[in-house]
Every structure is written in C-alpha cells, then in structure tokens.
Amino acid sequence: MFNKKNRVTKTKEIENIFKNGKSFYNDILGFKVLKNEIKNNRFCIIISAKVSKKAVVRNKIKRQIRAIIIGEKNILRNDFDIVIIVNKNIVGRDFSEIKNSLNSAFKKLNLYA
C-alpha cells in the first residue's frame, strides 16, 4: 500500500491528470503523467472490471504493480502525478513481464533520475 502522501485520490485531480497529462501506452499498461508542485510522486492505479470479472485477479495485479513501484521509488524523479491504466492483456502475465513493461514505460517517460 502506498503512503497517503504517495496517492492520487481525488476525482478532480485524476480528471486534471487525464486532461493535461502526457500519455504513454504499451501492450499491457497505459500512463498519464503530470508534473505536480509537491516534491514527491503520487500514483493511482486504475483497473476496470473489464480486465477481469474476479476481484481477486484485479487486486493481485494492483499489488504486483504497487510492489514494483515501491521497489523503484528511490530511483524515480520526484514531483510527478502518475495514473496507471491497466489493459486487458495483463491477465496471465507473470511478475517479470509486468516489471519489464513498467520499467520501459518509466524510461520512455523520462521518470528515472
């Protein structure tokens, strides 16, 4: 679980990120990134019931993505709001594939320090 200071929770903030943020999509994940005034990164993971009807599967995917982000948090540049949109193609992928996809997206978005 992210700390409260590392979460984007308000609907208006998420809408602002979608409206004004920079986009990037790969085969299993989508990203919306917007620079913020706070000096730490904030994340939001969006996974629809269309990805999987089973909440267990959706929660597992969220936990895996959170674990990867927490591991990478120290080497990411600060001051960004990041919304991660999960695609249907993620179901059945193992942890290493998700990690590679996330890392390549962070590189493309220049989020590494």
Automatic annotation (TrEMBL):
PROSITE patterns: RIBONUCLEASE_P (PS00648). It catalyses: Endonucleolytic cleavage of RNA, removing 5'-extranucleotides from tRNA precursor. It comes from the Bacteria. GO terms for molecular function: 3'-tRNA processing endoribonuclease activity; ribonuclease P activity; tRNA binding. Coiled coil: none annotated. GO terms for biological process: tRNA 5'-leader removal. Gene3D superfamilies: 3.30.230.10. Its EC number is 3.1.26.5. Keywords: Endonuclease, Hydrolase, Nuclease, RNA-binding, tRNA processing. GO terms for cellular component: ribonuclease P complex. NCBIfam families: rnpA. RNaseP catalyzes the removal of the 5'-leader sequence from pre-tRNA to produce the mature 5'-terminus. It can also cleave other RNA substrates such as 4.5S RNA. The protein component plays an auxiliary but essential role in vivo by binding to the 5'-leader sequence and broadening the substrate specificity of the ribozyme. Belongs to the RnpA family. Consists of a catalytic RNA component (M1 or rnpB) and a protein subunit. This is Ribonuclease P protein component.
